């Protein structure tokens, strides 16, 4: 069986690693890893390959940044001849980024089978570019690997045939389970003893200057009560520079490598984020998470986990943070099948 994996952006890398490893060494499986080049900074890409113990990509399409249409179209144009040349039995795509939907479209047109890892998640908010990517990818995919039962329900409601849906669990948690012991050995010297960890990159939060200014002011308010550690995503860095708000009280840094970030997450008093994956990781780690969005495509992190949606409601942020600082944080548990074995289950289904 010839398998192509297509990845492109930071959150794809921890999802592909366990699937690559689970298929490695299976009889008659030949794998090709394609990086679209959507994320290209060393600290958004290369360091993740190293720390996750992945081979370098066999092919890098080097598309870089652009508008959504340009980036998606560039990936499609450059990927098509590679897929045609390899003629795989299946192409696996991951998550909800532009690389995911671009690859799914190419394969659907070439009539090459597509498997979507992390299928079925829905925020029901079509202003999010990722929601469009999820909807289109799931309509095109032949095999849909879901992380939780709510994903199966969403897909069935959209008319996806039951036999295409495989509930396998959460591959991102596979990487976390494997590397947490190593992360725990990571020093967080130079960072404050007690802190809230912040990440921010959603277009709805950072591309609108009024929203971004409001969030930064809220973070400055938070920093009066607890230190704020904030590794800044490249898109956010540009927007903050445009705004010129002084952020002297926040501990800003470049985007961090996987292990260092995991170490910081596991030791944080609270995490404030608009990321999808971090909502899942904090739920697994049992660390309180306040999500700066009004919706989530990962509702199980709210119903079962430690996640609370605070949106841009500063009062709610303050009151939830007070509970956390007073030792009254919401408790949760890891959802079923978030156990470090999702990659094995995907390999099992594929080989069957
Ligand atoms: C992408 C994904 C998002 C995911 C996020 C994780 C889409 C639509 N969005 O958002 O779902 O949560 O990755 O990080 O696919 N840039 C750099 N260096 C890089 C990459 C990007 O400087 O290595 C800058 C560029 O100016 C670029 C901007 O960041 O224009 C945004 O990058 P892009 O890949 O378009 O989207 P993300 O915001 O990273």
Helix content: 40-55%
Low-confidence stretches: none
What is the CATH homologous superfamily assignment of the largest domain?
Glycogen Phosphorylase B
**CATH-assigned fold name of the largest domain:** Rossmann fold
Give the helix/strand class: alpha/beta
Number of strands: 13
Q: Biggest sheet: strands, sense, closure? A: 7 strands, parallel
CA-CA gap between termini: 11 Å
Bound molecules: uridine-diphosphate-N-acetylglucosamine
Give the CATH architecture of the largest domain.
3-Layer(aba) Sandwich
Range of strand content: 15-25%
Arithmetic mean pLDDT: 97
Indicate the overall shape. Answer: globular
Query: What number of structural domains do the residues give?
Result: 2
Number of helices: 15
Cα-atom radius of gyration: 20 Å
CATH class category label of the largest domain: Alpha Beta
Descriptive overview:
There is one protein chain. This protein has about 350 residues and is α/β, with parallel strands linked by helices. The protein folds into two domains: about 1-170 and about 340-350, Rossmann fold; about 185-325, Rossmann fold. It is about 45% helix and about 15% strand. It is built from 15 helices and 13 strands. The protein has helices at about 10-25, 45-50, 70-85, 100-110, 130-140, 150-155, 170-185, 205, 210-220, 235-245, 260-265, 275-285, 300-305, 315-325, 340-350; strands at about 1-5, 30-35, 60, 90-95, 115, 145, 165, 195-200, 225-230, 250-255, 270-275, 290, 305-310. Strands 3-2-1-4-5-6-7 form a seven-stranded parallel β-sheet, with helices on both faces. The protein has a six-stranded parallel β-sheet with strand order 10-9-8-11-12-13, sandwiched between helices. Helix 10 links the parallel strand 9 and strand 10. Helix 4 runs parallel beside helix 5. The longest helix is centred in the N-terminal third of the chain and has 19 residues, at about 70-85. It starts with a strand and ends with a helix. The mean pLDDT is about 95. The chain binds uridine-diphosphate-N-acetylglucosamine (UD1).
């Amino acid at each position: 069986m010839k398998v192509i994996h297509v990845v492109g952006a930071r959150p794809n890398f921890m999802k592909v690693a366990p699937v690559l490893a689970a298929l490695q060494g299976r009889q008659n499986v030949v794998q090709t890893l394609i990086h679209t080049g959507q994320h290209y900074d060393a600290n958004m890409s290369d360091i993740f390959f190293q720390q996750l113990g992945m081979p370098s990509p066999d092919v890098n399409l080097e598309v870089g940044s652009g508008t959504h249409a340009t980036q998606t179209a560039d990936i499609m144009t450059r990927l098509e001849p590679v897929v045609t040349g390899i003629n795989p039995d299946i192409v696996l795509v991951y998550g909800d980024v532009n690389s995911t939907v671009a690859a799914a479209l190419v394969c659907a047109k070439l009539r090459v089978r597509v498997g979507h890892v992390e299928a079925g998640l829905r925020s029901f908010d079509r202003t999010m570019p990722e929601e469009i990517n999820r909807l289109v990818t799931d309509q095109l995919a032949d095999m849909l690997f879901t992380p939780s039962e709510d994903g199966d329900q969403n897909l069935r409601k959209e008319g996806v045939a039951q036999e295409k849906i495989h509930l396998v669990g959460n591959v991102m948690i596979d990487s976390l389970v494997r590397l947490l012991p190593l992360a725990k050995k990571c020093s967080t010297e130079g960072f404050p003893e007690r802190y809230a960890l912040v990440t921010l990159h959603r277009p709805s939060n950072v591309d609108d200057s009024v929203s971004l200014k409001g969030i930064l002011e809220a973070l400055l308010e938070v920093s009066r009560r607890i230190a704020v550690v904030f590794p800044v995503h490249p898109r956010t860095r540009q927007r903050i520079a445009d705004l010129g708000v002084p952020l002297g009280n926040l501990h800003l840094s470049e985007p961090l490598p996987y292990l260092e970030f995991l170490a910081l997450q596991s030791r944080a008093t609270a995490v404030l984020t608009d990321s999808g994956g971090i909502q899942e990781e904090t739920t697994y780690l049992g660390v309180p998470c306040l999500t700066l969005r009004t919706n989530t495509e990962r509702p199980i992190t709210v119903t079962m986990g430690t996640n609370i949606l605070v949106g841009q409601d500063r009062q709610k942020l303050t009151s939830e943070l007070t509970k956390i600082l007073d030792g009254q944080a919401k408790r949760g548990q890891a959802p079923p099948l978030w156990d470090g074995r999702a990659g094995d289950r995907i390999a099992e289904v594929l080989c069957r």
